[in-house]
Structure formats: structure tokens, C-alpha cells
Design goal:
Structural class: alpha/beta
Number of helices: 11
Strand content: 15-25%
Largest sheet: 8 strands, mixed
């Protein structure tokens, strides 16, 4: 899918904050976790948008906001031109027929006390689409579609392997023929050989059913293989977004360059020549994120401007129109950051919360 494809989902300045309360009887909000803090991006019909970043950067929270599982604190999310943040309960139920999710844990996402046929058939029951023999027929068709034996309709999840359980999750997500599927690290809990099978299955299903994916993962090689475009998140914000070859070929944000330097390289000669960018310090607390650029306490290119002024997500130099980065001093092609260190000290990563009497 090209960059000019039709926009299926538009995320505009979305914030999601989780309140922290203290007190025994009268609970008072004393702080907030800024899980997602001003994210804007587009998801185009038929493409795969990869979202990467360290644990706690907000990528899974953003995915749950897009699927309507988390109400947003502020901002707007449009799906086919409709703002889903203002939908009624009935409107959300209709919306969720078009947006489904594949969860990370193939063991925890399936009820061990229910049979597989019942689990996959839940979407039909919830939306009143089919029952009885018709529902069983559709469930068995879905099982065959994802590579499971339809005769195992009455088995329990414990009778399947991890890869087979994830296929059950895929079948459940596809039951209502959604337009958007959010894959929240769908292969991270699987063996490497099984990962390849599930990824190839998702790729085949996208071609066959015309699906649009949001693919969240830590493995940068997996993201490169499956994605058309990639967004890199850090501490609740998007630091860089671009077509996959542009981002992997010429990263502009120092954080993106550091992530890519940590990725495994299959060619031993190339791996020996590559230099690892080691970031100093810890990830700041999302309760009290640093001012200006949130990456500046760990950035090897940070200057005083990075503390005083938050960078905008814009095109740098002669980059493609859809290659944007939020950095005042973007990485230049061929620039080596491995021997540089953060120019600005990080004072604290864990703010103290005020005491509240009960």
C-alpha cells in the first residue's frame, strides 16, 4: 500500500492519562501517568503500521484507545470519518465489529474452561449473527482458514500448543470480518519457528481478506518484515514515523538510531562493522516526564534547546513527505553516535508523590 492510500483511522492529538490516587477514605488524585501524551498518526486501508518502542512507551495503551477499549483523556480518533470517542454504547458495539484485537499471550487470552468452538463462536453470539448449526459451520470454516483441524471444535485450549492457541485467537478476531486488526505483540510469546508460521499466516490473511493491521512488537526484524510504515514511540509520544525502508535506511531521530543499532544482524561481517549506540541513564518516569524533548536526558545530541522547546513532528531536509521526526538536531546520513554520550544530565526518574492525609 502506498503512502497515498485511503485513510481508515486518523488519530489526532490523543492523550490517555491514568490517575494516581492516595488516601484511605477520601481518595485524592495526586498525580497522573502520562501513558499516551499527544499522539497523531494515520492508518491507511490495506497497510500494516508497525509500532515499536521500549516497554512502557505507550504503544499498547494507544492500541487500546484505537480499539475503543480505553476512553481517551483528550483528543480525537476517527474511524472511516466517524469520531469513535463520542460514540454511545450501541455505537461502540457496532464499531467493534469492524475493529478486533489479537492479544500477546496465547495462554491468558483464552478461557481454559471453555471449548474452542465456543470461544471462536463468541463474536457471533454477542452480535446475534448466527447460532446453532450455522454458528458451528462458521466456526469450523474459521478454524480451517487459520490452519486448525475443524474436527477439534470441542477441544479445550489446554489440548493445543502455543502456536495453535494463537491461531485460535486469530480465528476469533476474524469472525466478524473486521476492517482493522490490532496485533499486540502476537508472536513474542512463541518459539522462533512458530513465530514465522504465525507471521506468514497473518500476511496471507491480509492478502486474502483485505485486512489492515496495526502491528506492535519489540523485535525490529519482525516489524521490518511485516510493516509498510513504522512509528517509533518514546514515553507516550511518537518520535519518528516513516515508510519502513526509509526509517530503517536513514533514521532521523537519535532514539530510532539507538534502537536499530541494538537489532541483531544476520551477516557476521556486517555485525562486526556495526557500532552499538549505548544510551545512558534510565527511562524517565511517565508520572513526571521531562520538559521539552522527552528523550533529551539520554540523547547523545541533546542541547539546551531540547530542554526548553518541545520538537514538532516534521519532515527533515530532503526526506519523503511521510518521513517525519520530532527532533531539533536530527541524525544526518552517515553520522556515528556510538561514541557520543548524553550532553545533559538526568536529575531524577522517580518523582516523589505528595502525602495525602485520610
Amino acid at each position: 500500500m502506498t503512502a497515498q492510500g485511503e485513510v481508515l483511522v486518523r488519530v489526532e492529538d490523543v492523550h490517555k492519562h491514568f490517575p494516581i490516587k492516595q488516601g484511605i477514605i477520601f481518595k485524592k488524585e495526586v498525580a497522573r501517568v502520562h501513558a499516551v501524551d499527544g499522539v497523531s498518526l494515520e492508518i491507511r486501508r490495506g497497510e500494516t503500521l508497525g509500532i515499536v518502542g521500549e516497554s512502557g512507551c505507550g504503544k499498547s495503551t494507544l492500541a487500546r484507545c484505537v480499539t475503543g477499549l480505553h476512553p481517551v483523556t483528550r483528543g480525537r480518533i476517527e474511524f472511516e470519518g466517524t469520531d469513535i470517542t463520542t460514540l454511545s454504547k450501541d455505537g461502540l458495539k457496532r464499531f467493534r465489529r469492524d475493529v478486533q484485537m489479537i492479544f500477546q499471550d496465547p495462554y491468558g487470552s483464552l478461557n481454559p474452561r471453555r471449548r474452542v468452538g465456543s470461544i471462536i463462536g463468541d463474536p457471533f453470539a454477542i452480535h446475534g449473527i448466527a447460532d446453532g448449526a450455522e454458528r458451528k459451520k462458521r466456526v469450523q470454516e474459521l478454524m480451517e482458514l487459520v490452519g486448525l483441524n475443524p474436527e477439534h471444535y470441542n477441544r479445550f485450549p489446554a489440548e493445543f500448543s502455543g502456536g495453535q492457541r494463537q491461531r485460535i485467537g486469530v480465528a476469533r478476531a476474524l469472525a466478524l470480518k473486521p476492517k482493522l486488526v490490532v496485533c499486540d505483540e502476537p508472536v513474542s510469546a512463541l518459539d522462533v519457528s512458530i513465530q514465522a508460521q504465525v507471521i506468514n499466516l497473518l500476511d496471507d490473511l491480509q492478502d486474502e481478506l483485505g485486512l489492515t493491521y496495526v502491528f506492535i512488537a519489540h523485535d525490529l526484524s519482525v516489524v521490518r518484515y511485516v510493516s509498510d510504515r513504522v512509528a517509533v514511540m518514546y514515553l507516550g509520544k511518537v518520535g519518528e514515523a516513516a515508510a519502513v525502508e526509509d526509517l530503517y535506511g536513514t533514521p532521523r531521530h537519535p532514539y530510532t538510531a539507538a534502537l536499530l543499532s541494538a537489532a541483531s544482524v544476520p551477516d557476521p561481517d556486517e555485525a562486526e562493522r556495526a557500532e552499538r549506540i549505548v544510551l545512558t541513564g534510565d527511562v524517565p518516569s511517565p508520572i513526571d516526564p521531562p520538559p521539552g524533548c522527552r528523550f533529551h536526558p539520554r540523547c547523545p545530541k541533546a542541547r539546551e534547546r531540547c530542554v526548553a522547546e518541545e520538537p514538532l513532528l516534521t519532515v527533515k531536509g530532503a526526506d519523503a513527505p511521510d518521513h517525519v521526526a520530532a527532533c531539533h538536531f536530527p541524525v544526518e546520513p552517515g553520522e556515528r553516535l556510538a561514541r557520543e554520550h548524553a550532553a545533559i544530565e538526568q536529575e531524577s526518574t522517580e518523582p516523589e508523590l505528595p502525602e495525602v492525609s485520610s
